[in-house]
Amino acid sequence: MNFPANWQNCPPDDASPAAGIYFRVGRGTIPVEDDFRSQAELGKALDGDECLRQGLSTLREYADAVHLRRVNPRLGSIIYKGELNSSYGKSKLTSSRKSPSHTTLWAYIGINKASFFAVCKG
Amino acid sequence: MDWAVKSPPIDIASIGDLKPLEILYEFDGPRIFLSEVAAGEVLCFLADDDGKHFRFIASPTNKNIIDKLKNGLQTLRDTLNQPWVWFIDLTYDGIPQAAWKGTLADAPEDVLPEKGLMLWPHLEPIFALRAIGDGLSEGNVPISVIRQVIEGATTSLKKIANSVFEESKRQGRKANTIRQFYDLPTLGFAYNSFEAAFRVPETQQSPLSLTESEEVVAVFSKIGEKLETAFDWALDEKTRQASGPLPIELLEALEKLIPPKTGIVRSIEVRGKFFPNPVARYCLTRETSNTVRKALVAARASQERIVKVQGLVREFDKDNFSFSLRNTDDGKEHSCLFPPEFFDDLIEAFNNDGRVTISGRENIKTGEIEVSLVSRDNPSA
């Protein structure tokens, strides 16, 4: 299980194997790959931190996901929940006061990211 | 984008590159941040993303406004809602493509943050009540509705807080000031229906130690748990059948929250961070009112009575609005709780050893009286 070869020093050394519950927000009643594409994959935030761009934003608290949905209704009204383990990749709490449970998730090559998530019923 | 901006276009040269100077909220990149344009400082909000372009709303702002936003004194929507805003389309590599000058009303509702929402989750109200009824809107909220919401919040929390502290006292723990748990600072009022929101009190002295802070959080959590128990009972018949009658103090807390049988308010929606489920919303309807009132009549018939007692005011607690009534005409000592409007009369009676006659509801088991009328027997000249 490896990360893409072009990821330089990424994930950071203090990232841990993925473990536990992670939340994202989307629009579909079934999570699809497009809901789990990183900023790098989408060509966004070109001047942002390169390693963070390769990762995916998630939240560890359901209440934070609900809050995100209310901040940006266009992101979607559906909360996806994934119970992950070390076979997924690595994650690191990249939180701040701005988003206390914000966690960046880096997936191994070949992982079907969406398949680990399902619609959260609350 | 699937929505056209109908406001007049502006020259994108005046926008600059909209670089974030301070990021306030991020998820898959910055979503809310401060930036600088030729006209001054702007608050930028990522309203939409069509797969090729970002569309930002940029509102003029200043330090005063942003401080209010960061401290939970102003909602995100209200902070964005300035006399004018820019709508700015940027490519993914940050190049402005188009811009317009308009107002927030030019944006579709579903691209904007929800009304009443704070910038960060921890700024959300600890407790909020919303009265829902036809015709309730800004400039059209009768004072009776405002009073009902404010008194409902305060009195219901007071009842639950007293219950929580009674348990603490039985466990031999020192009772903190109860008042801080129900006389909450108001976060604000919203006029979509009518909502009053309250936040956690800040200490006016030196910052709480970690232990004190944890204790305050623990008490609020306990209050939230009890109130949730009450709502679950009131809103679900199966829960009522399974759990049996609710303790009278919870029924009396509910009594203060339910909508009246008639009038403009049809339902009351309750939410708050202190509930075990911080995102839950509890909707109390007139049907709920019937359930609660019926149970309360039955409970009061067996557990409370209306009394009138004369005596001397002793052991006056200014913070918790309570006192002991002694040398009474019924021969018993009574613990009494009173509403703030009787404070002056009672403290004067306390200071001057004046006799008072009080009436109210007495808990038959404990002898505690909830005072609703006070009369000074020997008022000072």
Please describe the topology of this protein.
The complex is a heterodimer of chains A (122) and B (381).
Chain A lengths: L15 E2 L2 E7 L12 H4 L7 H5 L1 E4 L2 H10 L6 E7 L4 E5 L8 E6 L9 E3 L3
Antiparallel strand pairs in A: 1-5, 2-4, 3-6, 4-7, 5-6
Chain B lengths: L21 E5 L3 E8 L2 E10 L3 E8 L2 H8 L5 H5 L4 E7 L4 E7 L24 E6 L10 H28 L15 E5 L3 E5 L11 H26 L1 H7 L4 H8 L11 E5 L10 E3 L1 H18 E14 L4 E5 L7 E4 L5 H10 L2 E9 L5 E8 L5
Parallel strand pairs in B: 14-16
Antiparallel strand pairs in B: 1-2, 2-3, 3-4, 4-5, 5-6, 7-9, 7-10, 8-9, 10-11, 12-13, 12-15, 13-14, 15-16
Summarize the structure.
Chain A is an alpha+beta fold. Chain A has one domain.
What does this structure look like?
The complex is a heterodimer of chains A (122) and B (381). By secondary structure, chain A is of the alpha+beta class. Chain A has helices at 39-42, 50-54, 62-71, and strands spanning 16-17, 20-26, 56-59, 78-84, 89-93, 102-107, 117-119. Chain A has one domain (16-119). A 4-stranded antiparallel β-sheet of chain A has the order 1-5-6-3. In chain A, strands 2-4-7 form a 3-stranded antiparallel β-sheet. Chain B has 381 residues and is α+β, with helices and mostly antiparallel strands. Chain B is built from 8 helices and 16 strands. Chain B has helices spanning 63-70, 76-80, 143-170, 210-235, 237-243, 248-255, 286-303, 343-352, and strands spanning 22-26, 30-37, 40-49, 53-60, 85-91, 96-102, 127-132, 186-190, 194-198, 267-271, 282-284, 304-317, 322-326, 334-337, 355-363, 369-376. Chain B is elongated. The chains are: A alpha+beta (122), B alpha+beta (381). Chain A binds chain B through residues 39, 42-48, 56-57, 59, 61-64, 66-68, 70-74, 97-100, 102, and chain B through 23-32, 46-49, 51, 76, 92-94, 110-114, 117, 120-122, 124, 278-279.
Measured as a percent range, the helix fraction of chain A is: 10-25%
Poorly predicted spans of chain A = none
The average pLDDT value of chain B, as a whole number, equals 88
Looking at how many chains there are and whether they match, the oligomeric state comes to: heterodimer
> In total, how many beta strands of chain A?
7
Q: Are there runs of chain B of 5+ residues with pLDDT below 50, and where?
A: 204-208
